[in-house]
């Protein structure tokens, strides 16, 4: 597949899955039934394919009925956590100690509003009148087909439940002494009913954790939680789509398949992809959902996307570091196409959404689903959900609602926007009932500041962290009294009006709204681009920069230009003097930035209103002396030719929050930051010519009260640990010459991440590092002089100690209850891990590759819950599990590319068979 073309035209999402063990041995059902259940196209076979109107609107997915004294603190608590961790909304009554003789109406309501009832039948279940009353009500709901009942026979014989024998006979003998014979008889009938239902017998599992895992997986498959739990209208109309899409996904579970979802912007392609992702997530070992692929590819290039996909699939946050130590990954991926079928295990699925059918045709994607607009009834239901918070409009608003739905043409995005009755006439009078004109009604309803902020976010900051956007835009809006107008209230208002959204702390604008924003900026100014608010097209920018317009002013406030296309931009001398309103200037590239593609005879003249400047590969030696920094919030000159940042007298940097000078190879002078009193982030990584970092310069950082992040990777001249502000949260000091971390590090009480990898002179860390309560990521890879395991605090999550000289892991490792990732590959002096490692319930990744003196298998807490376990090159000669029991060892190295941990262990030639 041609990578450049493919990513260049993708609109939204690439969804890739790695096959999970659908065909593994199952104690309850055969694999063909499981696969059929997942992919059936009939409404009867799959709850997710029933129309929303025919299904109850359940408040809970699962109601748990149990005898607290038997199971509350053990089995039940683990089951409840597993259910909630998998997004299954579960009701668990925690008021047993205060119960009376009768079930409260609230509890009865919880039963009636639950999709499933999981009844844990333990030894003393029948002794509780409360439990028996619950059971009677549950069986009534089952008979009315309002819920499904799943019994769990916990340590009891199902036949004893069915016949009320054994302990159940004793319990009912006591109940028979009570005067209310009718109630006792109803309890007996309910118990017998449950006994005849095929359920989960705990005696068939050697481990409770395995029982819970399979039970929760079964519930997930039967629930299809995106359909059953959503009551906000997001999935309306999905059953219609799924009847066509499920067959495309299910055929031949052993092949690798691409499925295309094709349709116009705003038609619901992203929503469909998200639904598929949630519905099928638990069926595969690894999954990755990517949005805005085209934009990310243009901004960051293919390597970024590849790393993003791998990090999502392997649940590893820094694939760059991890890949360096994984020969298997290199061999596996070397020379492969981006979406070659060789990447994925049999049964994998890649779902692609695009507006352009040619993307799919030219790359042999044969299984294509064309998304059509919502039907009138579905569109009306969706509109009513958002406008009236109910499934259908009242009679008073039905005619108006139908009118709106008709004008919007069944497009989900447009329907979700807010419309008012007095705006409907505008829709009717537009003539062309296009979505653009419909969307513009919502834009016209904004106030002037909201309009401008929306345009800035849509055109310039789509997908950027909200905090960064807000700090830049705050200084773009000043009142008549020269006071800064905070933009946060307006941003929140735009979110409430569905014009922008917030996801993972980033602001997003739907591509349909982004298209509209660009049209609004250009409206009426096609022939005079210098009169627009913003410029982003090369032809328009080149025209403005190369044309002599005499005394005519340039009104542009923002210029964002991607220089990756290879075009050279010629800049007329003095052009910036004609841009008194320029606030945002960004010349960026995602390809190699060895040299600038801008040609400028003089520097950036006085720009009194500039708030944001990014100029990749800026080719002059410094910013000009007349360059105004008074309002500058972000300055990014990465990969540039500067030798010093600013010339002349000290600059006013009171508003500067971020300074990025990464890979400025000619930079020979540490920037003067004495006036950058609000600086939060400083990035000077890989400035090769910065041979000296004066102590006085670093001491300036100690005075910064908002400072959070310092990047000095590759600054080999740095020999002393920087004395910086106590507010810092992130320190990247890889490949420096630091020899010691001083005890004063405990001053940095907010520190979360510190990376000191490849510091060849670094000695052991001080014990006081354990006092850093927020520290969760520590990197010490390739530090040969580190001989002692760092005494980190209990909240540590990521420890990379690869290729250190550590000989022993202390028993206190068991106290690190949050530890998820431990890499000790290449620690040749390490002999073993202590028994307390079994306390690490959260540990998912353990790497001991090349630890030649490790002879004993680590005693892990949760064998089968491990995501990756690498014991290659160790001296282990024993089995981690008892193969006679038919148990499978934990997965090794990569969760999707199935490898087992014992392969290539020293002294062994036996290989295990893969389950793929």
Major sheet size, sense and barrel closure: 15 strands, parallel
Cα-atom radius of gyration: 31 Å
Helix content: 25-40%
Number of alpha- plus pi-helical segments: 27
**Distance, first to last CA:** 25 Å
Shape: globular
CATH class of the domain at 58-225: Alpha Beta
Instruction: Provide the residue-averaged pLDDT.
Output: 76
**Could you please say which CATH topology of the domain at 58-225 applies here?**
Rossmann fold
* Percentage beta strand: 5-15%
The CATH H-level homologous superfamily of the domain at 58-225: Toll/interleukin-1 receptor homology (TIR) domain
Question: Would you kindly provide a written description of the structure presented here, covering whatever features stand out?
Answer:
- With 916 residues, this protein is of the alpha/beta class.
- It starts with a helix and ends in a 16-residue tail after the last strand.
- The longest helix has 22 residues, at 293-314.
- β2, α3 (68-85) and β3 form a beta-alpha-beta unit.
- Among the domains are: 3-21 and 231-370, no CATH class; 58-225, Toll/interleukin-1 receptor homology (TIR) domain (Rossmann fold), CATH 3.40.50; 387-444, no CATH class; 448-519, Orthogonal Bundle (Arc Repressor Mutant, subunit A).
List the helices and strands and how they pair.
Layout: H1 3-9, E1 14-19, H2 31-39, E2 60-65, H3 68-85, E3 90-92, H4 105-112, E4 114-121, H5 129-143, E5 148-153, H6 158-163, H7 167-175, H8 181-195, E6 200-201, H9 208-223, H10 225-228, H11 238-250, E7 257-262, H12 269-280, E8 284-290, H13 293-314, H14 319-324, H15 327-333, E9 349-354, H16 357-361, E10 367-370, H17 376-388, H18 395-408, H19 412-416, H20 421-428, H21 435-444, H22 448-459, H23 466-474, H24 488-496, E11 501-503, E12 506-508, H25 511-522, E13 534-535, H26 538-546, E14 558-562, E15 569-571, E16 584-588, E17 598-600, E18 612-615, E19 634-636, E20 658-660, E21 681-683, H27 695-700, E22 709-711, E23 730-732, E24 753-755, E25 777-779, E26 798-800, E27 821-823, E28 845-847, E29 868-870, E30 891-892, E31 899-900
Parallel strand pairs: 2-3, 2-4, 4-5, 5-6, 7-9, 7-10, 13-14, 14-16, 15-17, 16-18, 18-19, 19-20, 20-21, 21-22, 22-23, 23-24, 24-25, 25-26, 26-27, 27-28, 28-29
Antiparallel strand pairs: 1-8, 1-9, 11-12, 30-31
Helix pairs in contact: 1-13, 2-11, 3-9, 5-8, 17-18, 18-20, 21-25, 22-24, 22-25
Keywords: Leucine-rich repeat, NAD, Plant defense, Repeat
GO molecular function, one term: ADP binding
Domain TIR: 58-223
């Amino acid at each position: 597949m041609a990578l450049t073309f493919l990513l260049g035209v993708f609109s939204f999402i690439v969804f890739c899955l790695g096959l999970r063990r659908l065909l593994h041995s199952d104690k309850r059902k055969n694999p063909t039934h499981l696969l059929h259940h997942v992919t059936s196209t009939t409404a009867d076979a799959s709850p997710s394919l029933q129309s929303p109107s025919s299904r109850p609107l359940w408040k809970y997915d699962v109601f748990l009925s149990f005898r607290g004294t038997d199971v509350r603190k053990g089995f039940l608590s683990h089951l409840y956590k597993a259910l909630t961790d998998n997004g299954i909304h579960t009701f668990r009554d925690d008021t047993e100690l205060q119960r009376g003789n009768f079930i409260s109406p609230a509890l009865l309501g919880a039963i009636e509003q639950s999709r499933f009832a999981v009844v844990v039948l333990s030894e003393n279940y029948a002794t509780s009148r409360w439990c028996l009353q619950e059971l009677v009500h549950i069986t009534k709901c089952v008979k009315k087909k309002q819920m499904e009942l799943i019994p769990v026979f916990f340590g009891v014989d199902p036949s004893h439940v069915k016949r009320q024998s054994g302990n159940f006979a004793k319990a009912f003998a006591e109940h028979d002494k009570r005067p209310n014979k009718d109630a006792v008889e109803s309890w007996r009938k309910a118990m017998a009913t449950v006994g005849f239902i095929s359920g989960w017998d705990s005696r068939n599992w050697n481990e409770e954790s395995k029982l819970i895992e399979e039970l929760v997986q079964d519930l997930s498959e039967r629930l299809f939680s995106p359909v059953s739990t959503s009551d906000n209208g997001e999935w309306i109309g999905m059953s219609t789509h799924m009847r066509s899409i499920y067959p495309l996904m299910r055929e031949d579970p052993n092949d690798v398949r691409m499925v295309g979802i094709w349709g116009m912007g705003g038609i619901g392609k992203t929503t469909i992809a998200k639904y598929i992702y949630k519905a099928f997530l638990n069926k595969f070992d690894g999954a990755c959902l990517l949005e805005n692929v085209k934009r990310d590819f243009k901004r960051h290039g293919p390597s970024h996307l590849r790393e993003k996909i791998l990090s999502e699939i392997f649940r590893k946050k820094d694939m760059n570091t991890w890949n360096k130590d994984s020969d298997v990954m290199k061999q596996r991926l070397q020379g492969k196409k981006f979406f070659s079928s060789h990447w994925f295990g049999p049964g994998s699925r890649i779902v692609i959404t695009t507006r352009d059918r040619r993307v799919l045709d030219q790359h042999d994607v044969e299984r294509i689903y064309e998304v059509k607009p919502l039907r009138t009834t579905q569109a009306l239901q969706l509109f009513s959900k958002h406008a009236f918070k109910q499934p259908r409009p009242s009679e008073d608003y039905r005619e108006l609602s139908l009118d709106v739905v008709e004008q919007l043409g069944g497009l989900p995005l447009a329907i979700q926007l807010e419309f008012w009755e007095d705006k409907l006439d505008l829709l009717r009078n537009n003539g062309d009932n296009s979505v653009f004109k419909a969307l513009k009604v919502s834009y016209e309803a904004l106030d002037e500041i909201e309009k401008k902020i929306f345009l800035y976010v849509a055109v310039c900051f789509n997908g950027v962290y909200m905090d960064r956007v807000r700090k830049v835009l705050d200084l773009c809006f000043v009142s008549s009294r020269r006071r800064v107008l905070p933009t946060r209230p307006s941003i929140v208002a735009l979110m409430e009006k569905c014009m922008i959204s917030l996801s993972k702390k980033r602001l997003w604008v739907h591509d349909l709204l982004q298209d509209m924003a660009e049209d609004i900026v250009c409206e009426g100014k096609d022939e005079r681009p210098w009169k627009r608010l913003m410029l982003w097209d090369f032809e328009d920018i080149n025209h403005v920069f190369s044309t002599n317009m005499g005394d005519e002013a340039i009104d542009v406030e923002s210029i964002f230009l991607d220089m990756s296309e290879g075009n050279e931009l010629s800049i007329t001398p003095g052009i910036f003097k004609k841009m008194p309103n320029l606030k945002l200037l960004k010349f960026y590239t995602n390809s190699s930035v060895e040299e600038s593609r801008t040609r400028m005879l003089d520097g950036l003249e006085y720009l009194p209103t500039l708030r944001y400047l990014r100029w990749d590969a800026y080719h002059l030696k410094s910013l000009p002396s007349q360059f105004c920094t008074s309002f500058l919030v972000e300055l990014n000159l990465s990969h540039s030719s500067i030798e010093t940042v600013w010339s002349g007298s000290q600059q006013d940097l009171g508003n500067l929050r971020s300074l990025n000078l990464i890979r400025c190879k000619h930079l020979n002078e540490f920037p003067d930051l004495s006036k950058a009193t609000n600086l939060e982030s400083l990035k000077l990584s890989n400035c090769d010519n910065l041979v000296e970092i004066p102590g006085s310069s670093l001491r300036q950082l100690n005075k910064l009260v908002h400072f959070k992040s310092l990047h000095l990777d590759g600054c080999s001249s740095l020999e002393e640990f920087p004395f910086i502000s106590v507010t810092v949260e992130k320190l990247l000091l890889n490949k420096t010459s630091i020899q010691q971390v001083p005890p004063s590090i405990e001053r940095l009480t907010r520190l979360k991440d510190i990376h000191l990898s490849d510091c060849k002179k670094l000695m052991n860390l001080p014990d006081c590092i354990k006092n850093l309560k927020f520290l969760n990521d520590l990197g010490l890879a390739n530090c040969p002089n580190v001989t002692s395991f760092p005494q980190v605090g209990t909240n540590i999550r990521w420890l990379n100690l690869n290729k250190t000289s550590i000989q022993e892991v202390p028993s206190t490792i068991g106290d690190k209850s949050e530890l998820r990732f431990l890499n000790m590959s290449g620690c040749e002096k390490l002999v073993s891990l202590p028994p307390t490692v079994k306390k690490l319930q959260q540990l998912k990744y353990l790497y001991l590759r090349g630890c030649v003196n490790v002879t004993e298998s680590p005693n892990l807490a949760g064998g089968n819950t491990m995501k990756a376990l690498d014991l290659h090159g160790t001296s282990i000669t024993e089995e981690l599990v008892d193969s006679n029991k038919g148990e499978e060892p934990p997965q090794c190295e990569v969760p999707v590319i199935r490898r087992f941990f014992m392969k290539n262990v020293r002294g062994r030639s036996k290989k295990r068979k893969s389950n793929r």
